[in-house]
Specification:
- It is built from three helices and ten strands, in the order αββββββββββαα.
- By secondary structure, the chain is mostly beta strands.
- It has one domain: Immunoglobulin-like (Sandwich), CATH 2.60.40.
- A hairpin with a 5-residue loop joins strand 9 and strand 10.
- The longest helix has 6 residues.
- It is globular, with a radius of gyration of 17 Å.
């Protein structure tokens, strides 16, 4: 098994002319929150980075998705969702995991392997809570081929925006963050970056990945 530590800065990639090679498994490249009635839909655009492989049974998990609305999830074909109070993610990571709040675990059920670099699709779920100031842990388990040709497991962890508050009764909901305003003109969508061949590592530079490694 292997855990890769990765910190990429978009500024360095865009303005420094640096060619970056990123191998970091499944990554939530985009995340957005939209109000649906009196609830909130959280949507994550997930990509598979270079040299990584998704095999049937591989998965990723959103930990402590507060206020989850049952049967509200949407996902691409070939994926399934289950919810559970604890666990469900990559075993060699150490996410924050409140047993009073549901984890969302998406598992690949397709019959063929998926290979990076590729856009996996959008995954979403409703919450009764608006976006809070905190962030959720996002873990993934995929595979990678090492220098000897052996395919081995790869576990990773990062953070994403998520619902605030608590579902265990009496919890308070954090106020939503200040709206930063419209996106500056000229900033391409992630799909545009991929289609134009701008390089997946540059797109990945948009977020910093946090890795925590369990002592073995």
């Amino acid at each position: 098994m292997k855990i890769r530590n990765l910190k990429l800065a978009m500024a360095a990639a865009l303005f420094g002319g640096i060619t970056l090679t990123a191998q970091a498994s499944l990554i939530p490249l985009t995340a957005k929150v939209e109000k649906e009635g009196d609830q909130y839909r959280y949507t994550y655009g997930v990509i598979l980075t270079s040299d990584s492989i998704v095999q049937p049974g591989d998965s990723f998990a959103l930990y402590d998705f507060s206020g989850y609305v049952p049967d509200s999830a949407k996902m691409p074909s070939g994926w399934s969702l289950k919810t559970q109070p604890t666990g469900g993610g990559a075993s060699r990571t150490l996410p924050n995991d409140d047993p009073n709040i549901q984890n969302l675990v998406w598992t690949y059920t397709g019959s063929e392997n998926l290979y990076g670099q590729s856009y996996i699709g959008q995954f979403s779920a409703l919450s009764t809570n608006p976006q809070g100031e905190g962030r959720m842990d996002f873990t993934s388990r995929t595979h990678i081929q090492d220098s000897t040709g052996q395919v081995i497991v790869e576990d990773n962890i990062t953070t994403v925006i998520g619902p605030g508050g608590s579902t265990n009764g009496g919890g308070t909901i954090d106020p939503p963050p200040v709206d930063p305003g419209p996106t500056p003109p000229g900033v391409p969508e992630p799909s545009t970056l991929l289609l134009l061949g701008a390089g997946l590592p540059i797109a990945l530079g948009a977020r910093y990945l946090r890795r925590r490694k369990e002592s073995v």
